[in-house]
Write a structure and sequence with these properties.
Elements (H helix, E strand, L loop, with lengths): L1 H21 L5 E13 L6 E7 L3 E9 L2 E7 L6 E3 L7 E5 L3 E6 L4 E8 L9 E11 L1
Antiparallel strand pairs: 1-2, 1-3, 1-9, 3-4, 4-5, 6-7, 7-8, 8-9
């Protein structure tokens, strides 16, 4: 009886582990809620926050090469990011040329931060922080 009980426990444990490992293969679509740009004020020469309602969307999908666990692409263009590491615990962290991208798969939120040279009319090279929500695909 103890052997059967041990086999049941091992089967349940390995099934739970396999389903957790398979969650790495999910894709997500992430949509921004707000972007705060720290724009340089030309009169005072100080950075001041400017809040935008955002409309950016990102596709977060598994990588196609062994050394790239995830790829993040901006829907409609823009530079993508390659993530050499997958989710660690619940977080995915990627670094790109213009931004860093951090996603939590438990609360399905993300944060991007970087320097934007062209998207917003506040000047060039202004640092920004962007937040949004993700949906599994």
């Amino acid at each position: 009886m103890k052997i059967i009980y041990a086999l049941v426990i091992m089967t349940i444990s390995s099934t739970a582990y396999a389903s957790e490992a398979n969650s790495e293969d999910k894709s997500y679509i992430c949509a921004s809620d707000k972007i705060v740009v720290l724009a340089l004020d030309e009169e005072s020469h100080e950075r001041k926050p400017v809040v935008y309602d955002a409309s950016r969307k990102y596709l977060v999908k598994p990588g196609t090469e062994p050394k790239i666990k995830y790829i993040i692409e901006e829907v409609g263009g823009g530079a993508g990011m390659q993530c050499p590491k997958g989710f660690e615990d619940s977080d995915l962290f990627c670094t790109g040329l213009k931004a860093d991208f951090r996603m939590n798969r438990i609360n399905l939120s993300y944060l991007a931060q970087g320097s934007d040279n062209s998207t917003y009319p506040t000047g060039t090279g202004n640092p920004y922080i962007e937040i949004g929500e993700c949906t599994p695909q």
